[in-house]
């Protein structure tokens, strides 16, 4: 799983943290890394804390771990072509990694981070490595040490076809040794109340059965502890609250792939969480977009 990693390097201080995150994916089967350099369009905006020697050391450590390294330049390459770079790879074998700070609603249309351009035209899984800028200008990733078998993964689902496809990636992770998962479904109160309130007991039973079926599928894949959460509310709000309270290491989401204008004016839970969740996010495109 995720044998081939395409790691976006932007000459930013958190390039180091993205590479450290890539290093941690060895337990999932990562073997090859293509370091794709994407220079900022305005050189004067490059961060003064970027240290190329740190990145060089990271690359040496990756080689010592047995990774095969290649490099390429993305300058002048349209965003949609970046996904084509991994198009030839087998399903579940490829992953794009890019660092991304939390994006507020007000600045979404002006986001300059390449990661948020990439997620507008998804054709391959993208892992947004969440980076946090501290008061002193330094950066850390969330989680700080990347992923491992004991990482706690959150899988919110709406039981759509797209969500079920994303779930197959979670199954693969459990097969590789992941030990802790929380399955979550938030019944959208805007779609239930007030006209369908009388059916809430029925909905609870249906959704509980669906979550239990997913739990059993995971338990058949490996030695994993699975928590199940079923609540009613606003999906984005409740999922965000759970992330803040439980400090999940990763959120796995199915990505609808509506494009930037649809996401801006209509919005989607996956798009909002990808930009605003205070942890790293793995976005899985629809099966027909792979």
From TrEMBL:
Residues 151-285 form the UspA domain. Belongs to the universal stress protein A family. This is Nucleotide-binding universal stress protein, UspA family. It comes from Proteiniclasticum ruminis. The lineage of its organism: Bacteria, Bacillati, Bacillota, Clostridia, Eubacteriales.
């Amino acid at each position: 799983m995720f044998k081939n990693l395409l790691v976006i390097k932007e000459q930013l201080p958190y390039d180091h943290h993205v590479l450290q995150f890539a290093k941690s994916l060895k337990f999932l089967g990562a073997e090859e890394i293509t370091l794709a350099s994407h220079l900022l369009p305005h050189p004067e905006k490059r961060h003064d804390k970027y240290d190329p020697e740190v990145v060089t050391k990271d690359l040496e450590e990756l080689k010592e771990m047995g990774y095969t390294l290649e490099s390429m330049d993305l300058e002048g390459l349209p965003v949609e072509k970046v996904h084509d770079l991994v198009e030839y790879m087998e399903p579940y074998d490829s992953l794009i990694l890019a660092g991304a700070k939390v994006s507020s609603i007000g600045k979404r249309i002006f986001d300059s981070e390449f990661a948020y351009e990439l997620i507008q035209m998804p054709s391959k899984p993208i892992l947004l490595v969440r980076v946090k800028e501290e008061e002193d200008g330094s950066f850390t990733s969330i989680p700080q040490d990347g992923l491992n078998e004991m990482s706690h993964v959150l899988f919110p689902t709406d039981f759509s076809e797209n969500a079920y496809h994303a779930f197959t990636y979670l199954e693969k992770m459990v097969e590789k040794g992941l030990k802790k998962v929380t399955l979550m479904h938030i019944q959208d109160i805007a779609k239930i109340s007030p006209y369908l309130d009388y059916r809430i007991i029925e909905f609870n039973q249906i959704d509980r059965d669906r979550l239990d079926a997913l739990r059993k599928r995971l338990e058949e894949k490996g030695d994993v502890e699975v928590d199940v959460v079923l609540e009613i509310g606003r999906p984005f709000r409740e999922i965000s609250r759970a992330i803040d309270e439980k400090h999940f290491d990763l959120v796995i989401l199915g990505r609808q792939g509506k494009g930037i204008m649809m996401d801006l004016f209509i919005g989607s839970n996956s798009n909002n969480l990808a930009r605003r969740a205070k942890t790293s996010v793995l976005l899985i495109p629809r099966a027909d977009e792979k």
